[in-house]
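Posting this for the archive.
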Amino acid sequence: MNPTTSTPPGASASLCMPDAMNVPGICRGALTQWPQLHAALARLATTDAAPMAAHQAGGPEQLQAALRLDPGYLTQPTPPADLYGHFVWLAVRVLKAARRFNLTLQHLPDLFSMAPGSSASERGGWVRQVLAGADGLLAEAQALTAQASAFGHPLHSAQASAQASQARWQPASVQSEPTPADNPGPALHAFSQAQARARSEQYQSERLQLSAANQTVAAAVGNMASAIETLATAWQAMVAQLQAIAAHPPAELGSLDYLRTNLALDQAVAQWGSFAGTLEQFVAGSLGSSRVIARTA
């Protein structure tokens, strides 16, 4: 789902969300195939070529069990080891960041009313500190960029594993079981030609099913990787926007009219608020319960 309002044309240095910040919809798409992924992994578990184990993929039940043991499971600095848990862990951090952006920008005008006798340059220095100081919004965007990029490594590894497994089930690479014509001798008397054909067809059918299961795993992991790539790109764009804003002269940043007209302050507040609300719904759905939201975000 895209934000309710879009960035004004030419406002690359505005406080509005980047155009790439359409994460909630992509997040939902990244997890819709998870039940099929687990069914596919169960099918592949009968072979020695499964790209991952079910516990490595994770899922809502596994995450809920972890939260019952530790309600602060998703607030730990280290993400869960499974892909589903890691994804939701990151979504919780994006939710926290969206709330912070919304509240910070909403109360930015308070800086102006708190010091009525200050100069525009002084106020601009305060605004710059809030946006790009050591613990400002820029640091938040940089941290999320790094966290999203780091998650890309296990996802790409899982993709590579699924691709390697897929080669085993390709029809061109599948060798049929020996038939009487291939292996003359005592076996020739054990099978009729019809029985041999039936076994060969069953053999090929099983491998087609395994190939389809492996493709399901690859697609599910690929959707998640795409979501994470978009997430990293979006936050990197937000980093660039905040860096551009911080380079504005203090006298400009110290003007509330400038913030509202040139940097789209009010529009940005609405965007980040809507984004946070959509993310909260997504995280609640991913956890299977909205009651956990208060403990995690």
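Residues 23-296 form one domain. The first helix runs from residue 23 to 31.
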